């Protein structure tokens, strides 16, 4: 049995669970609220929870509830605890670095711990993947799971049910009574558990957005995990450049199912790089063309994907445009060749970026280009080259979106270690990371003038399509 936890139906869902009298233990999966910057328009479906829920439900031994803090308020969380906590075998919390999510997570866990029947609370997610031991030592945290949760969470639940030794749970770190840490075996970075998500655990209608770069009824989707590139600032490196993805046909089936069920006319893929497998990408595009769904879509792409398609003589952008793709998001990072090569390791030059962006524009696709300023050791002259590249890109038609981010030192990445050498002082403990805000200046070498200029050069299409 599963439960829909859209905010309007929260109490009804909880009542339905109790009246149906399920005797299965319950797993509560939580995605705490994220404090996005003020001009961020959309909150999307929490795929980190959907992937874990799918893996848990496939075993059939537990019920699952998803709680999205971006859709439901603290009062709804309290009601859920009052009505369901006695059934719960554990509470799983997914957190990323920054955005206030860690702070909201700790507030939710404190509320849960006030209940005498509170089960073990286990943390996972991008932040835990790189700061697992520090997270595990926080007094509100009973255990952490590093690596893909769909690999580790079912095993952790099995250990709570007495079906598996705790020491055999992949990715586990937990405190023993003497304060020592118990570690499970390594959790492999690849996973095959993607797609055919349990949509009924969410009120999907709450996540359909009027996206000005895609369509009036746009829904998000994640079809892959990991990335093969080595950008030195990026969290995706924690997956050790391993890549897992749905094949084209199952992905098409997922999209068709979403359209039939919820009347969507757009899909926004939030994969780190949707185009890693070029054959898969072209196969998906050809499937959309053949089915003639009238669907618009958007995804992220690395400039090297387009260069590889050229070398292989694959009609990538031709197929992408013909299939209804309206927007391609590309991390450019810098307009300076030294920064691109030596700092970011982007494996592409400024000239190649301009060439690729021109090809995207010629295909009639909106390019959305992101940049970063304030890298360790980056000079003002090198930053100027980034802004001059932005000006060149704005000469294209359609006029691209541009977003300029401030460099944020993410733990577990090579540039984090470099930032420490330049004087960055990281938070000292897990709770300290709750104040880490990647939209503000975090490094001692980043001036307010740099911050203001980055914001001024950010141009996004934020107005609804209608």
Can you walk through the features of this model?
The protein has 2 domains: 7-183, Response regulator (Rossmann fold, 3-Layer(aba) Sandwich); 208-407 and 446-456, Alpha-Beta Horseshoe (pyruvate-formate lyase- activating enzyme). The protein has 16 helices and 15 strands. It has helices at residues 10-20, 47-59, 74-84, 101-113, 126-130, 132-136, 149-160, 248-262, 278-291, 303-311, 316-322, 337-344, 350-362, 380-393, 414-421, 448-456; strands at residues 26-31, 63-68, 88-94, 121-124, 143-145, 172-175, 181-183, 218-221, 224-225, 244-245, 266-269, 296-300, 325-333, 366-373, 401-406. The strands form 3 sheets. The chain has a 7-stranded mixed sheet, sandwiched between helices. Helix 1 (10-20) packs parallel to helix 3 (74-84). The longest helix is centred in the middle third of the chain and has 15 residues, at 248-262. It is globular, with a radius of gyration of 22 Å. It starts with 9 loop residues before the first helix and ends in a 10-residue tail after the last helix. It holds the Pfam family B12-binding. Its cofactor is [4Fe-4S] cluster. This is B12-binding domain-containing radical SAM protein.
């Amino acid at each position: 049995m599963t439960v829909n936890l859209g905010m309007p139906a929260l109490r009804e869902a909880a009542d339905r669970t109790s009246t149906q009298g399920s005797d299965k233990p319950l797993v509560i999966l939580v995605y705490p609220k994220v404090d996005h910057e003020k001009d961020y328009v959309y909150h999307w479906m929490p795929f980190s929870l959907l992937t874990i829920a799918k893996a848990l439900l496939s075993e059939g031994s537990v019920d699952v509830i998803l709680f999205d803090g971006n859709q439901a308020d603290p009062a709804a969380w309290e009601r859920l605890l009052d009505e369901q906590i006695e059934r719960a075998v554990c509470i799983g919390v997914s957190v990323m670095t920054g955005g206030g999510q860690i702070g909201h997570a700790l507030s939710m866990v404190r509320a849960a711990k006030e209940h005498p029947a509170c089960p073990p609370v286990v943390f996972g997610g991008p932040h835990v993947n790189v700061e697992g031991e520090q997270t595990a030592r926080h007094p509100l945290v009973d255990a952490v799971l590093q690596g893909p949760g769909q690999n580790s969470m079912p095993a952790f639940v099995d250990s709570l049910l007495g079906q598996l030794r705790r020491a055999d749970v992949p990715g586990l770190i937990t405190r023993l009574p003497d304060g020592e840490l118990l570690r499970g075996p390594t959790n492999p970075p690849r996973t095959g558990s993607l797609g055919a998500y349990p949509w009924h655990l969410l009120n999907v209608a709450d996540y359909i957005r009027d996206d000005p770069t895609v369509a009036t009824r746009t829904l998000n989707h994640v079809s892959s995990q990991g990335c093969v590139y080595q950008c030195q600032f990026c969290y995706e490196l924690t997956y050790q450049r391993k890549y897992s993805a749905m094949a084209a046909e199952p992905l098409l089936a997922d999209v068709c199912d979403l359209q039939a069920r919820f009347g969507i006319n757009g899909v926004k893929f939030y994969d780190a790089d949707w185009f890693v497998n070029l054959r898969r990408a072209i196969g998906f595009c050809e499937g959309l063309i053949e089915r003639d769904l009238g669907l618009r879509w958007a995804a992220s792409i690395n400039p090297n994907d387009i260069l590889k398609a050229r070398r292989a003589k694959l009609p990538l952008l031709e197929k992408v445009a013909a299939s209804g793709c309206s927007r391609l998001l590309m991390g450019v990072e810098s307009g300076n060749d030294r920064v691109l090569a030596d700092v970011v390791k982007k494996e592409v030059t400024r000239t190649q970026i301009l060439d690729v962006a021109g090809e995207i524009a010629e295909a009639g696709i909106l390019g959305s280009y992101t940049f970063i300023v304030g890298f360790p050791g980056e000079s003002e002259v090198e930053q100027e080259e980034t802004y001059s590249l932005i000006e060149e890109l704005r000469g294209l038609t359609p006029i691209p979106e541009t977003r300029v981010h401030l460099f944020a030192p993410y733990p577990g990445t090579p540039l984090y270690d470099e930032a420490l050498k330049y004087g960055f002082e990281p938070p000292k403990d897990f709770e300290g990371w709750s104040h880490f805000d990647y939209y503000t200046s975090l490094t001692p070498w980043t001036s307010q003038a740099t911050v203001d200029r980055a914001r001024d050069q950010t141009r996004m299409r934020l107005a609804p399509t209608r």
